[in-house]
Amino acid sequence: MALLKQKMVWIGLLILMLVFVIFGAAMMGSVVSVKPKNVPVALVVLDQSVDLPTGGKLAIGETLKEKLTANKQLPLTWTVVATEEEARAGLDDREYYGALVLPADLSAGVASIMSPTPKAATALVIANEGLNSQAATVVKQGLGLAIKMVNTELSKSMLEQMGKATGQIPVASAQALLSPINVTEETVHAVGTNNATGNAPGMLTQIMWMGSLVTAMVLFLSNGSARKTGAGRWGTLIAQPIVGTVFVGFGSGFLVWMASSWYGMELAQATATWMFLWLAGSAFFLLQSALLNWIGFPAMGILVLLMFFSMPLLNMAPEFLSAASHDWIYSWTPLKFVAVGLREVMYFGGLGAASDNAAVLWSIAGGFLVLLLLSGLKKGKATTAVNSAA
User: Fold this and answer.
1) CATH 3.40.1710.10 fits 39-188, yes or no
2) Domain spans, the chain
3) Exposure of 308 by Cβ count < 10 A (0-12 exposed, 13-18 middle, 19+ buried)?
């Protein structure tokens, strides 16, 4: 076929393969091999050992502590803390995705199974849903499985002891033996209704990036049109970030209103969410505008690739990522600081909780504002591109 003799056809095939490699790495490379590992969890052991009627002591808390901390199959990293209050403070400070509290009467409750009037022994599992709902689910499932295994061992051991001691087992005790340790689950920093199962911060970040990019491109082209009609270079350049941040502020407010009014997203910190999104959108806009002013239209390729490589990572806990994804992309992408900051604003009490990420965004905004203004000194391809596009 004559068509296959054309070089452009084979160049097109190479380009197609390159597109698959780049976007495959962006959309699949970071997520297909994701698995939880080293998920930080607090462990509180308040349990007091008790004497058994058959002799010896029962210390369920210490037994559980030894089994859990020695279990390498669970994707959890344990931090033993002294009190429940300390564990809850760590949850509030985003140090743990969950906590397991073994109360002071845990062993007494299990030991009571051997009495005519057994009482429930209950452990408390606290899931920090706002920090990351996927990781919180892993914590609940992992702890539930671990306690189930301990329950099986306890049931078998106590059944043998009671059979030897009495020869028969009361009905109430037999029922308690089915599950010697009950689990009560509690969720802190809940994500609320219609929050995309806790993924709303990442979703809002992506929408804000796209809105800022459209604003940056429109003002980049408008800058060229204004200069073509004789407007001064510095006047249009100074107006560009001012108009852009105003537009982004309006757009971020509209986005918050739309999410709440149209889609029923529960936003306990609506005003704080809007203000943080405004800061995020301004940082995005200034970054995008600086690259467009310096490089011209080729900057769009960089910005689009940055978005596609960042998107799959925004709603994942860092502990779920491969070392390459974490170190090469997640650790520095601007979208990460917005998604994490929004999570702190929306689920951990407002702007004060996001001060560290806000500081990073202020730095990004300030740095790229300077670069944007310095582009007025540049002459060459980017300036020519603006004028020709206009």
Assistant:
1) yes
2) 39-188, 196-389
3) middle
